[in-house]
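Margin note from the TA: students keep mixing up input and output lines. Inputs are the sequences; the output is the structure of the whole complex. Example:
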Amino acid sequence: VPEFSLIRRLASLVPTSGADIECSIGDDGAVLCPDSGERLVVATDTLNEGTHFLPGADAGALGHKALAVNLSDLAAMGASPRWALLNLSLPREDAAWIEAFGSGFAGLAERTGVRLVGGDTCAGPLSLVVTVLGTQEPGRSLRRDGARPGDDVWVSGCLGDAALALERRLAGRPVEGRLAEALDAPEPRLALGRRLVGVAGACIDVSDGLLADLGHIATASGLGAVLTVADLPASPALAALEDDTRRWSLQLCGGDDYELCFTAPVAQRDTIRGIARDIDLRLTRVGSMEQGAAVRCRAPDGAAFRPARRAWEHFAGSDGG
Amino acid sequence: VPEFSLIRRLASLVPTSGADIECSIGDDGAVLCPDSGERLVVATDTLNEGTHFLPGADAGALGHKALAVNLSDLAAMGASPRWALLNLSLPREDAAWIEAFGSGFAGLAERTGVRLVGGDTCAGPLSLVVTVLGTQEPGRSLRRDGARPGDDVWVSGCLGDAALALERRLAGRPVEGRLAEALDAPEPRLALGRRLVGVAGACIDVSDGLLADLGHIATASGLGAVLTVADLPASPALAALEDDTRRWSLQLCGGDDYELCFTAPVAQRDTIRGIARDIDLRLTRVGSMEQGAAVRCRAPDGAAFRPARRAWEHFAGSDGG
């Protein structure tokens, strides 16, 4: 049965055992041992070829990214990842593809302490579903509904790089270095998420673009927000774009950033700057929460800014949107 | 974002909250509260159109079956199901399909106490990935590696009905009643799995056919086994087949049965018959474990029986096998 041999092959590439795993791949289910009283935090995401990544995408990058986008969700909850499951649909058995995919997955799994405990591989159009399970102390979850009026809005890292990289790749231009990494190998902000517990009021990971994701915090918290577009953090590649509207639009709506957006009381500014130093990660104040129901963007001249129609919509359009 | 609205719509159809759920659909992850000291049991399965079900399959039946095949894994571990996640890829937004699928999923979820706590819906070829999480007391898992030489081999319910139903449906013949139910609405044997804890030595759910799945028990336990084909439990529809070889082949290799196959010491026969009465489920002794490394089948005349090439291989062949 090929479904069996492929998951076995994958299991030989990635960490699958540990003191908190009684039974892993090879039985009907995995038997896991959370510590007494721990909360379990679970997240899952699908990546489909043609919808979430381009046909012919590098297998190693997909292995990393399929796990990374899920770990990013756990980071946004302030949880520590422990176990993962992988459902892999492949059009045909391809040992070299599996090898590369497994290596990409394993590299990130090892670095973040994640063990693969289950899943399946089967025939079908290329599709990657990863489910991650993490744990945390009770009452320590970073949720979307904890923002308060007047809270600062912060964002980690830089925004818009993945979208710019996708634009260039779709145009057939080479994409390398930091830009390629932003799109192919996003780094889940796990250390930041854990440090934000007790500091941030609300938190979300930026996967659909800052505007949409801050919108989720605003809606869940029954508030509005205002963003100052000139404050949005930009990498050198993005800062080099001369068209302000294009740059801000990529930063606000690009998506695939996998940075954390969080809110915190003004009184926490020094603490947050200390966290940024401790974990060596740029944290930028980009706006604030306010009464209302919308997320507004303010240009440097004080006027309202509306992002341009997304340059990559012909691709993202396959998402049904 | 349609990915958001569809999972919300599904969440309105199925149970999503409970005292052991702090945070469910609508945040980056679900926050769940296992009891202190409980083991967590996790299983996941993919159903792809064209590989695991026929194009145009009934949406309500798929909703039931996608959950049922996963609950069957928890049953085989002796665990109690609690939470589920659903990753649904759909070629297009189709409200009626979602409605029917959600109803099928919800019916079984409500009956078995499962709450939907996460997942996503996105554009792609039709694919259903369900992940189920259950709990059980430490040291109570039914595993594949616990069979001993001389143990009886038992199986629940009847075998071969789903395979016969698939054969007939592929031939364009109407399939109704109990046969259709076997293929479209298998019933996970959760009560049986729980009762077998402390009674069975090894247990597996029959998804790939009894021969293959008992083979997994044999391999994991370092043993062989012998099956008496005349003892395999048959429904009236299957018993009516005049060709013994065809009937036994369907029962041994048909797959999609979702019954439990388990081993137990001879001394447990009365206990097992008592369980069968208590839960009103047929349990049949079909063979025994022995030294060796293969699963043998014995015909009524004592000769070795080898199943015929599977009639449905032109369909199952898309599975890569």
